User: Which sequence fits this backbone?
């Protein structure tokens, strides 16, 4: 697995996609945090990072599929899938190697945003007047969200040899799982069952973590979705119909 992981990371770092993705992400979030009216911290007047944690999931909807779309689709198109599976590694080791390498790239993009936390911390009146527990919980939520989106992206890349198709399918699935259930839960049709419907969506559990309360039920939900996506990817690749 580590050889696959190293190969994928080197491939990312030797291409422009890693640098473009990280730059676009940081510039986009930075503009919302510090420049755009109605969302920047300076105009808001409170030591708060809600802009970062509210906008990043929607940026992730495009950022992470752009990272994962090449994972297996490129291997299929280049005809190197059979060669890849002749290595003395299991299907799950190959999948996890590609999964972890993609997730690490997302984390590389996320880590510099800690500077935003430091800046808001210093700007607080008095200094440090910021809900650090909430920020910590929100970062855990972003990490779990990125983990789920990456697993969905890897699965999407495994079902096609076209990277653009993988990109579109990944965006669609991430969007549906993130906001689809919460939108569905607003329908009056469900009545008192609306909370149950909401709980099937990522947004419900992400918002829960963003409050700074680390609930084992939320963590279990995220891990379950990741596990389901990894297993689904293995089932697709295990068919060997490429």
Assistant:
């Amino acid at each position: 697995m580590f050889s696959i992981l190293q190969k994928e990371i080197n491939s990312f770092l030797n291409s422009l996609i890693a640098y473009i993705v990280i730059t676009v992400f940081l510039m986009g979030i930075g503009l919302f945090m510090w420049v755009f009216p109605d969302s920047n911290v300076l105009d808001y007047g409170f030591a708060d990072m809600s802009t970062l944690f509210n906008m990043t999931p929607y940026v992730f909807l495009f950022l992470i599929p752009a990272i994962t779309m090449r994972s297996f689709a490129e291997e299929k198109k280049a005809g190197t899938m059979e060669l890849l599976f002749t290595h003395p590694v299991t299907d799950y080791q190959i999948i996890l190697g590609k999964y972890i390498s993609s997730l690490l790239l997302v984390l590389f993009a996320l880590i510099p945003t800690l500077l935003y936390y430091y800046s808001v911390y210093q700007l607080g009146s008095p200094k440090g007047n910021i809900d650090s527990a909430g920020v910590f919980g929100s970062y855990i939520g972003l990490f779990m969200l990125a983990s789920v989106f990456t697993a969905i992206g890897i699965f999407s890349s495994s079902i096609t040899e076209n990277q653009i198709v993988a990109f579109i399918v990944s965006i669609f699935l991430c969007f549906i799982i993130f906001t689809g259930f919460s939108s569905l839960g607003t329908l009056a049709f469900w009545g008192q069952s609306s909370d149950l419907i909401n709980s099937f969506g990522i947004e419900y559990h992400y918002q829960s973590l963003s409050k700074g309360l680390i609930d084992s039920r939320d963590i279990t939900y995220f891990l379950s979705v990741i596990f389901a996506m990894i297993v689904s990817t293995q089932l697709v690749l295990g068919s060997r119909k490429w």
